Amino acid sequence: MINKRQIVLNSVAFLILVIIVISCQLLNQNYKFPDSYSYLLACKELYFNFKLNDHRPFLFSLIYGIPLLFTKNIESLFLWSLILNILFWFATINLLYKSLLSFTSPKIAFIASLLFSISIGNIFIIFHLLTETIFTFITILIVYQLINYSKDKEIKPLIYALSVLILACLIKPLSLGIVLICIIFYYNDILKITKSRYSIVLYFSILLFLIQLIGMKVTYGTFTLSYIDNSTYYNYLGTKADCYKNKEVFIQGKNKRVLETKNLSHQEMKKLAKKDFYNQLENNKLNLIKAYFSNLFINSTKGSASVHGCKNINKTSYFDAFQFTFKVISKIQNIFLTLLGILTSFIILYNYKTNTKSILFVAFTILYCIGVSAISTDQGDRFHIILYPLIILQTTNIIIRWKQKFYIP
To answer: How far apart are CA 87 and CA 141, in angstroms?
Structure first.
């Protein structure tokens, strides 16, 4: 049920969205991330050729490629993705609000959820064919279910959380690490799942997971979710470390050793990336560490690339002022929320005995995602905006607990 406060929350969020859309002419922009074309290709391969893409797992393509059932007009996917992303964005706001209600008042939950609705990076990314918006929704959905499980101890929310988490691997492969975190925390609880009639949901998600693995084996020769981790490591982290060693300038995607891998097969690239990683650990460890923290710093201090990509198509006099403002805000939000996420996560882990499993899961997930993001670099705030709802939820939880601890009537 949506209460009056949620109606106000959604209305304010809608107003913020409209203001940003109009001020930055977002419905008229034609800039698209290079990654958008790879997702576009994955949709085409799935619906036109019934083939899995080597880099993009099939669930995102299945959901966002639905218009291809009725038309061969590829441009229809961008409109469809916009509709889906707006719905997922609003759903994220409402799930964050409901999650916050589990430990705080409706007023504070409203304010905290409103803070997410003014996240510039999350709003601008809505207008791109990318996984960030749906994945942000998925992460808060999982946490919402785990919070419900912590409160009621009914097995159904845990089954739903784990099922959605496994499906998330078919949208973003990095979710596999989060699955392991969940299994570690809820190992004893997961053993109860087989006795529940709702376990069919979990088995279905596992089946889809296996279909991805088997499909990749049949198509490309390896049981894997995606080959993207190999090329990402080699082209970004590994190449930057190599550039430091040879005193060369790192140019994203254009260094000699990256260009030399263009014609390698998937298996050859995987072997090369693995060999390079072990070689760097053995012979170039300091530069590898330097490259890792360089990537981490860049990912944590850049603003929204979506804002930077906007052009003053309608030649309005106010465009530049709004764009500059949003650039600055998105940069500040990325820096502040990343630092806040790291700090509050360590506070949660330090006080692990007094926290619920769901909050500990949030802390580990934040640290894991931020840590893994450093494998790549220079994508603006894309790697961290998926964590903003979790960071807001975790920070609010700590503030409420401190207030209760030190409050004197």
So the answer is: 14
The answer, yes or no, to whether residue 248 has pLDDT greater than 70, is: yes
> 307 with 327: CB under 8 angstroms?
yes
Tokens matching residue 282:
């053995």
Q: Distance (Å, rounded) from C-alpha 132 to C-alpha 373?
A: 13
pTM metric for this prediction = 0.93
Q: What are phi and psi of 227, to 5 degrees?
A: -95, 5
Beta carbons of 25 and 32 less than 8 angstroms apart: no
**What contacts 322, CB < 8 A, 6 or more positions away?**
23, 24
* Strand positions, DSSP E, 95-222: none
How many other CB atoms are there within 10 angstroms of residue 254's CB atom?
11
Q: Is 55 helix (H, G, I), strand (E, B) or coil?
A: coil
The answer to whether the CB of 34 falls within 8 A of the CB of 42 is no
pLDDT range class, residue 299, cuts 50, 70, 90: very high
- Please give the Cα distance from 122 to 75 (Å, whole number): 22
CA distance 40 to 75: 9
CB contact at 8 A, 268 and 220: no
